[in-house]
Design goal:
The protein is an all-alpha fold and 498 residues long. It has helices spanning 2-26, 40-46, 90-102, 110-132, 137-151, 154-157, 166-184, 192-206, 216-235, 240-271, 273-285, 292-299, 328-335, 340-349, 351-363, 392-400, 405-425, 429-448, 451-456, 461-464, 466-497, and strands at 48-49, 69-72, 108-109.
């Protein structure tokens, strides 16, 4: 009976997900997110390029209006195998290109890409519902509605019709979570195919955006855990063969994953890294400084750079007094002398400034809506960023959640105490693996929080917190499930005692 209920709820979740996604993304006018200049680095490596546009139509491309059509160009096959590290977006984009050609489209269309993303995301979420198995019908029902309401929020889905890395990031993470849940249900029969799904989803997640690099150690840990689980039944948990076989077989996928992730990071850092370092110093450290000259000395930079304090890297060139981004003098005196390590060292030496930056970051948290245009110019009379299709959850979160550093720290402390308590009590390997997965999700979110400010100053902070907000939402669902399951178990114990 319980198995039948799980199957029924899974099928119903799938149907509801399709209805919600169709309503949000595919009912005209079809929404998306306008390019703020980020698309170019995706176009360059995935075999796409901009269509020719007139000067007076530049607003079709940036900020105000969604542009869905791009020219399809050949691509180096080495990119598909990670030999030339490339964003994992290359795979859904290539699938969408193939569908566009089969369908007779003259151009690549991001609305086709949105269909690919939707199928991947719905599949991942549905399998999560299927494999979660909390063991209680009330908790299954609660998890069902919370997942629909929170994880299919319109302000997550609307990014699917774009060339931003955000969709691939949350899809990759959800597939990774799904693959670990699958392994947790097969503790005595974990096969190579199950391990393969874990590894592939790791590549998709870590290769989606450069900011995912902080998740690399935690993903590696979960991969090692799945290998340990696979060989624990064969050799026993405490034998040398068990550890030796597990680590030996895990080594190759981990090396490939590290090579791919670091290579992808290095590639992106060569292009957008210049802008982000400029922002982190001038629009972060110096903007919040009482003494910019002193801070520049600490960073090992010329004190006359203080004239650019408070400026980001995207202003018109005439707005800069001396050190414009990408200029020869800036390359020589700034780019060659600054590094991410120096910036991190500065904040470690100045913890008050770090706290100040984190307080600003907290003020930008819990917001997944943005001010970029949401529709094509042909579909609306004038530019609008307003979007309200199935966005109730993100509106509640943005309006009512305290955007305070103290709240965020307190939440994670309480959450981790609850989770560690469950981990201590866990007896089964499957339960331990699931709790380790929860800890990995929480830690990924924690490390995402400081990244926007440390790596990009005050530029685009809310957008860079996208993954933090998503993991925070997942933790809310998990915490509610834990609490609900505890209540159900408590009531069951009372009935038995009576």
């Amino acid at each position: 009976m319980k198995e039948y209920f799980t199957k029924f709820s899974t099928i119903l979740f799938l149907i509801c997900s399709v209805i919600i996604v169709t309503y949000v993304l595919f009912i005209p006018p079809r929404p998306g997110v306008a390019d703020q200049g980020d698309f170019q680095r995706v176009l360059d490596v995935t075999g796409l390029k901009e269509k020719e546009i007139l000067a007076e139509d530049r607003d079709l491309v940036f900020f105000k209006y969604v542009k869905s059509e791009y020219i399809m160009t050949p691509i180096n096959p080495l990119r598909f195998f990670g030999i030339i590290p490339t964003t994992s977006m290359i795979y859904p984009i290539t699938a969408a290109k193939l569908l566009c050609r089969i369908g007779g489209f003259n151009f690549f269309n991001t609305e086709i890409l949105a269909i690919i993303y939707a199928i991947m995301y719905i599949t991942a979420l549905t399998l999560c519902i299927k494999w979660y198995r909390p063991g209680s019908k009330p908790v299954i029902i609660l998890n069902f509605f919370l997942s629909l309401f929170i994880l299919l929020d319109g302000n997550y889905l609307v990014w699917f019709n774009s060339l931003y890395g955000e969709p691939m990031m949350i899809i990759g993470l959800t597939l990774f979570i799904t693959s670990i849940l699958n392994v947790s249900n097969k503790t005595r029969s974990t096969g190579n195919k199950d391990i393969f799904l874990v590894v592939i989803s790791s590549f998709l997640f870590l290769g989606s955006k450069i900011q995912c690099i902080t998740a690399l150690p935690f993903v590696i840990f979960m991969i090692v855990r799945t290998f340990l689980l696979k060989y624990s039944t064969q050799y026993g948990n405490k034998t040398e063969k068990y550890y030796g076989k597990s680590f030996k077989n895990a080594l190759i996928p981990i090396i490939l994953l590290v090579f791919y992730t670091l290579g992808f990071f290095a590639q992106i850092n060569r292009t957008c890294g210049v802008d982000t370092k400029y922002n982190s110093v001038f629009y972060g450290i110096l903007m919040d400084s009482d003494n910019p000259q002193r801070d520049l000395q600490v960073l090992g930079l010329s004190t006359d750079m203080a004239v650019e304090a408070g400026k980001h890297a995207y202003l018109p060139e005439n707005e800069y007094k001396k050190y414009a981004p990408w200029s020869d003098i800036t390359k020589k005196e700034f780019n060659l002398k600054i590094s991410n390590l120096k910036i991190i060292r500065f904040y470690l030496k100045n913890p008050k400034r770090l706290i100040q930056g984190m307080e600003y970051t907290a003020s930008q948290s819990f917001t997944t809506a943005n001010f970029l245009g949401k529709y094509k110019k042909t579909d609306v009379e004038e530019y609008t960023y307003f979007f309200s299709r199935f966005t109730l959850w993100s509106e509640i979160r943005s309006k009512y959640f305290p955007k305070k550093l103290l709240f965020i720290i307190s939440y994670y402390i309480i959450f981790l105490i609850v989770v560690f308590g469950k981990y201590v009590k866990a007896q089964k390997n499957s339960d331990k693996l699931r709790i380790e997965l929860v800890l990995a999700i929480a830690t990924i979110g924690i490390f995402q929080f400081p990244m926007p400010y440390l790596g990009n100053g005050r530029a685009d902070t809310a957008k860079q917190l996208f993954l933090f907000n998503y993991t925070f939402d997942i933790l809310i669902i998990i915490l509610v499930n834990y609490m609900s399951l505890s209540i159900v178990n408590f009531k069951n114990r009372l009935r038995k005692s009576d």
